[in-house]
Amino acid sequence: MNVLLINSSPQQQNASTYCVAKTLLEQWSQDNEVLLQEINVTTIPHVDSAYATALGSIHGEHDESVGSLALSNQLITSLDFADVVIITSPMHNYSVPSGLKNWIDHVVRVGKTFNVSSTGKHGLLRDKPVYILISSGGAFSSQEAYQPDFFTPYMKEVLATIGLNNVVFFSVEGTVGHSNEIHQKIEAVQTEIRTYLRTI
Ligand SMILES: Cc1cc2nc3c(=O)[nH]c(=O)nc-3n(C[C@H](O)[C@H](O)[C@H](O)COP(=O)(O)O)c2cc1C
């Protein structure tokens, strides 16, 4: 089982969502040999001029080894190779953090991961489960939510563009507080995940 973990938290392996990701990995490891590739997307370069030119070119003739096209190809290969994807991410300003947006800009690529026709955009990737683990300082999905959520609808839409329609979200919300309260919230989501995995 090839697992790709896209880590978009500035806290990396200390992130609350990373604890939750470990639960997924532990559960899968019980029945599978898990091969994990982990990518820290908080430090990858932005798409550059070579990339923008290539995406704007109608003839598709460009040197794939130049600038961020090479990185884009690597990231797409990793995504394509994976049987399952985990994305660990904080909510930043009601939406995805810039590192995750950066990764999206590299992998959502016309002619590579989606095509465009008169009927719209059509995904080219083999569909696979994508687990998105979100952490937020406040609530965004429950009845107590006091802020908008541009994260989950955006991720659903953008992943569907490249053919990934099997997207599941789990969230640790309200992380501003005492560490024991946060720990309890993480444990609750870990339990939710174990229960979910038994039902699929
Ligand atoms: C730049 C920035 C923007 C943030 N924006 C939001 C926000 O819009 N809503 C929210 O609930 N929390 C927001 N937070 C808080 C984080 O989502 C929260 O601390 C989260 O638990 C961090 O997760 P992690 O460190 O485990 O990855 C923001 C934090 C930062 C640093």
UniProtKB/TrEMBL annotation:
It catalyses: N,N-dimethyl-1,4-phenylenediamine + anthranilate + 2 NAD(+) = 2-(4-dimethylaminophenyl)diazenylbenzoate + 2 NADH + 2 H(+); 2 a quinone + NADH + H(+) = 2 a 1,4-benzosemiquinone + NAD(+). It comes from the Bacteria. Keywords: Flavoprotein, FMN, NAD, Oxidoreductase. The keyword Ligase does not apply. Its EC number is 1.6.5.-, 1.7.1.17. The keyword Chaperone does not apply. GO terms for molecular function: electron transfer activity; FMN binding; oxidoreductase activity, acting on NAD(P)H as acceptor; oxidoreductase activity, acting on NAD(P)H, quinone or similar compound as acceptor. Residues 1-194 form the Flavodoxin-like fold domain. Its cofactor is FMN. Signal peptide: none annotated. Binds 1 FMN per subunit. FMN binds at residues 9, 135-138. Quinone reductase that provides resistance to thiol-specific stress caused by electrophilic quinones. HAMAP family: Azoreductase_type1. Belongs to the azoreductase type 1 family. Homodimer. This is FMN dependent NADH:quinone oxidoreductase.
